[in-house]
From TrEMBL:
Coiled-coil region: none
Keyword check for Iron: no
GO cellular component: ATP-binding cassette (ABC) transporter complex
Protein's organism: Acuticoccus sediminis
Keyword field: Amino-acid transport, Cell membrane, Membrane, Transmembrane, Transmembrane helix, Transport
The protein's name in its UniProt record: Glutamate/aspartate import permease protein GltK
InterPro entries: AA_ABC_transptr_permease_3TM, ArtM/GltK/GlnP/TcyL/YhdX-like, MetI-like, MetI-like_sf
CDD domains: TM_PBP2
Membrane spanning residue stretches: 20-44, 152-171, 191-209
Length: 221
């Protein structure tokens, strides 16, 4: 196949990629903050002895883990305003959708991390008169968080890639900006190649940091 590559086009339009990367970073940040906050609450609710707390949390987690992210984003953007009358921008809808989706996975990381702490730690906390909340805050969570960080980082890296789905809501993140650029330049191979490299530059350092942390903590156990 006789094809002449012209990567100069990607360089000439580098501002487009920077603009898309800024939106991608914004979506990732807001979705991560929502996911961590809601995920912690859901993880603790799923460990609750009370059915009225466990059941809604389990339903939320399984619903968002068992349905496609794209369907969730489209439903929040188009259906939620019809049901509630609340109008949201495409960026806000995408951030909320990604945040709710990530919360389901973050909650499982929280729950698994807490469950990994030995029962003896709980018994020791109760023996010195601590309540459940005190034991969780002072003893269990500080130990569990260390074990949670590598999977948290991996989930964060996955979330960056999931932001490309926001292009279906016309959010000007990296993929959407790349598609617009392809429509103007008719150079899809160069644009998608640069797009792939851009995501690799964003995500690989995160994955590398996760692997380094995991190896470091394994050697200190």
């Amino acid at each position: 196949m006789d094809y002449t590559w012209h990567f100069q086009i990607a360089w000439d339009y580098r501002a487009v990629f920077f603009r898309g990367a800024a939106i991608t970073a914004q979506l990732t940040l807001w979705a991560t903050l929502m996911g961590l906050t809601l995920g912690l609450a859901l993880g603790l609710m799923r460990r609750s002895p009370y059915f009225l707390l466990r059941a809604p949390a389990a339903t939320f987690v399984e619903l968002f883990r068992s349905t496609p992210v794209l369907v969730q984003l489209v439903w929040i953007y188009y259906s939620l305003p019809i049901l509630t009358g609340l109008q949201m921008s495409n960026v806000t809808s995408a951030a909320i959708g990604l945040g709710l989706h990530s919360a389901a996975y973050f909650s499982e990381i929280f729950r698994a991390g807490v469950n990994s702490i030995s029962k003896g730690q709980w018994d020791a906390a109760r023996a010195i008169g601590m309540s459940y909340a005190q034991a969780m805050r002072r003893i269990i969570l500080p130990q569990a968080v260390r074990r949670m960080i590598p999977p948290f980082i991996n989930e964060f890296a996955s979330l960056i890639k999931l932001t490309t789905l926001a292009s279906m809501l016309a959010v000007n993140e990296l993929l959407h900006e790349a598609n617009n650029l392809i429509n103007n330049t008719y150079r899809p191979l160069e644009i998608y190649t640069v797009l792939a490299l851009a995501f690799a530059v964003l995500i690989y350092p995160i994955i590398y940091a996760s692997q380094r942390l995991e190896r470091r903590w394994q050697t200190h156990q």
